[in-house]
Amino acid sequence: MTKEKDLAIGHGLFGTSDTGDTSGFGGLVRIPAHPGSTERPYGGYFDDVADDLERAYPDFADAIERVVVDRGELTLHVKREKLTEVALVLRDKLRFEMCLGVSGVHYPNETGRELHAVYPLLSMTKNQRIRLEVSIPESDPHLPSLVEVWAGNNWNEREAFDMFGIIFDGHPGLTRILMPDDWRGHPQRKDYPLGGIPVEYKGATVPPPNERRSYR
Amino acid sequence: MSQSSDQVTDPYASSRETTEGKVFSVTGGDWDSLVTEIGATKEERVVVNMGPQHPSTHGVLRLVLELEGETITELRAGIGYLHTGIEKNAEYRNWTQGVTFVTRMDYLAPLFNETAYCLGVEKLLGITNDVPEKATVIRVMMMEFNRIASHMVALGTGALELGALSPMIFCFREREKCLDIFEMISGLRMNMAYVRPGGVAQDLPPNAISKIRETVRELRRDFKDNDSILIGNSIWMGRTAGVGYLDLAGCTTLGITGPVLRSTGMPWDLRKVQPYCGYENYEFDVVTADTCDVYGRFLIRMNELEQSLRIIEQCADKLEKLEGAPVMVADKKIAWPSQLALGGDGLGNSLDHIREIMGSSMESLIHHFKLVTEGFRVPAGQVYTAVESPRGELGVHLVSDGGTRPYRLHFREPSFNNLQSTSAMCEGSLIADVVAAVASIDPVMGGVDR
C-alpha cells in the first residue's frame, strides 16, 4: 500500500521550537500520511461493488481517480466533473438509496486539492456501505450539488458550504445554515482565525486562544 | 417601528408596513387589536414565525409557516440557534477529551454520542477487538437505559405539546430512574463522558447489578401507566393517527432513519442489520409500524421500551459472570494509568495509584503526565462508524492526521437529517398538526446544531 503526502509534517513536541528546548524532543520530525491507493482484491463485498460499478458505468476508469480500502472501509475518489453521473449510477443501478450527508475536510497542505467532500453512502437493499470522496482546489471551490439525486443532502450541503465554503452548484438555496447569515469566513477551515482577546487575571495575562500553545 | 396614528397602540401586538406586506409582531397579551387588523386586510395568505422560542418546538427550532386559513402551504425550518462549534473545538483537544465534547451534542442521548465516537477512535487505532467484553456489555446496558430515558422525554413532551399532561408526569418519573442508574455508575446524570476510547471510565460500583434488576422490574411495572392512558385513547388517536405522513420513498430520499423510518414498515435497525458492540449476541425484536404516521412512531417508541428492558436484563446476566473483569484495554499506551475511584471528596484518581506515582515510581509519573496532558497518537486515516441512537443513525466521520487530536470530527446527526422532513410531513395539513409532526420526529436541537 502506498502513502499519500497530504498532511503537514510535524516538528518537535510540546510546541517548543526555540533554544528553550531542554528535552531534546524539539528535534523530532513526524511525516504523517493517509493510506494511498489499494490494489485488487479489495476484500469482502468491495470487489463486487467495484465490478458492478465498472459494468454499469463505462467511464469508471476515467471518473474514479483511485480506490482506497482502509480499516475495512471502501473509499472511491471521484473526479468532480463526474460526481453526479457516478452518484446516479450508484443510486439507480447499485441501489445505494441513502446518502448520509456530506462532510467537508480541509487539507491546506495538499496544494490544488485543499478541500475534500466526503459522502458516506448506504445501501439498505444490499446492506452495504461505501464512501465517495471528491477533492477540489480552494481557489475554485465548486462541486455539483447532489440534492437532485438525494434530496436529503440539502441541509448537509448547506452546512458544508457554511463551514468550509464549498459551493454546491445547482443547490436550490445555498445559504448559511448554522452560522448567522452575515457571518464572514468559513469557521471549520484550518486557516480560520480563532480570534479572542488576552484576559488579565490577578496581574497575570492569559493570551488569546490563537496564541496559546495548545491551539497551535 | 412606525405606528400609524389612527390605530390603537397595543404594546403586545404592533404592526408595520414592509415591502413584503404588513408585518404584525405579536408577543402575547391582548390579541383583539390584531384580529381586528388582520380582518381588515384582503389577503388570505399569512406568514407566521413559530419559534425559535416556542414551547412546542423542542428547544430553539424556528418554523416559518405560510398559511391559507389554517392550512399550511409552505413550511421552512430555521436552525442554528444552538450552534456551539463542538466539531471545531474538538480539533484542539486530545482524543480522550473529545468524549467530553461529543457527549454534549445530543444532550438526551449522551451515551450514544460517546459510544459512536469511541467506536470510531477504536477503529482508527485498530483496537476494536481488544476492547474488553465487560466494557462492551456496560456500554450496551448504558445505551439501552439511555434509549429509555430519551424515549421517555420524546413521549412525555410530545404528549404534553398535544395537551395531555399526565403522560409527562409518568414519563419523567421513569426517566428519573434511568438517570439514577447513570448517577450510580458514572457519577453524573447527564453528559457523563463515561465511555472512553478503549473501554469505559470506571467499573460498576458494588451492588450495581441488583439495583439494575430492581429498576428494570419497576420500569416494566410503571410503563403500564402510560400505555393505559394513551394507547387507543380516542383524543390521542384523533391528534396523531394519519398525521405527519411520510412513506418509505420519502424516508430514503430524505435520509430519514430511526423510528420515522421504521413507521413505514421497514425493519431497519443498525443493532440488527449491522451489529456493533456485540448486539448480535442479544435477543430482541425490531419494532415497526405500517401506518407512516405520528401514531405509528409513538407506538414504536412505546414498544421499544420493552425491547430495551430485555437487552438490559441480558446485560445484567452477562455482567454477573464478568465480576472483576477489566473495563479498559490492556494497552498501557492508550488506557489511562489509573481507574478512577470514588473518594470522600468526589471522583478522582485512586489513592493506590497516587501512592505509586508520588512515592515509588518516577516512570509511572512521567507516563501518567504524558498520557493525560498530551494524549495518545492515532494513525492517520479516516473512518465512519454508526450506531442506532433513539433518533436514528448516528454516524461519526473521524479523520486523523497521526496526531494526538482529531483532525476532523463530523457527526451525522439523525435529528439534523430527520428535521428536514418537517416540510414534507406538514405541507397541506393543519397548523395544529405541525406540533404533532415535529414531536414525532423528536429532534434535539443540541444535536441538530452541534
Report on this model:
The complex is a heterodimer of chains A (216) and B (450). Chain A is of the alpha+beta class. Chain A has helices at 46-56, 60-63, 83-92, 153-164, and strands at 10-11, 29-30, 64-70, 73-78, 98-99, 103-106, 115-123, 128-136, 142-144, 167-169, 199-201, 204-206. Chain A folds into 2 domains: 1-36, no CATH class; 37-215, 2-Layer Sandwich (Beta Polymerase, domain 2), CATH 3.30.460. In chain A, the strands form 4 sheets. In chain A, strands 3, 4, 5, 6, 7 and 8 form a 6-stranded mixed β-sheet that branches. Chain A is globular. Chain B has 450 residues and is of the alpha+beta class. Among the domains of chain B are: 13-78, no CATH class; 127-334 and 414-449, Cytochrome-c3 Hydrogenase, chain B. Chain B has helices at residues 32-40, 86-90, 98-102, 110-125, 133-161, 166-186, 208-230, 234-240, 248-254, 259-262, 270-273, 294-321, 351-360, 362-374, 414-419, 421-426, 431-441, 445-449; strands at 13-18, 21-26, 45-50, 62-68, 71-78, 195-196, 199-200, 340-343, 346-349, 381-389, 392-400, 408-412. In chain B, the strands form 5 sheets. In chain B, strands 3-4-5 form a 3-stranded antiparallel β-sheet. In chain B, strands 10-11-12 form a 3-stranded antiparallel β-sheet. A two-stranded antiparallel ribbon of chain B has the order 1-2. In chain B, helix 5 (133-161) packs antiparallel against helix 6 (166-186), helix 6 (166-186) packs antiparallel against helix 7 and helix 13 crosses helix 14 (362-374). The longest helix of chain B has 29 residues, at 133-161. The two termini of chain B are 34 Å apart. The chains are: A alpha+beta (216), B alpha+beta (450).
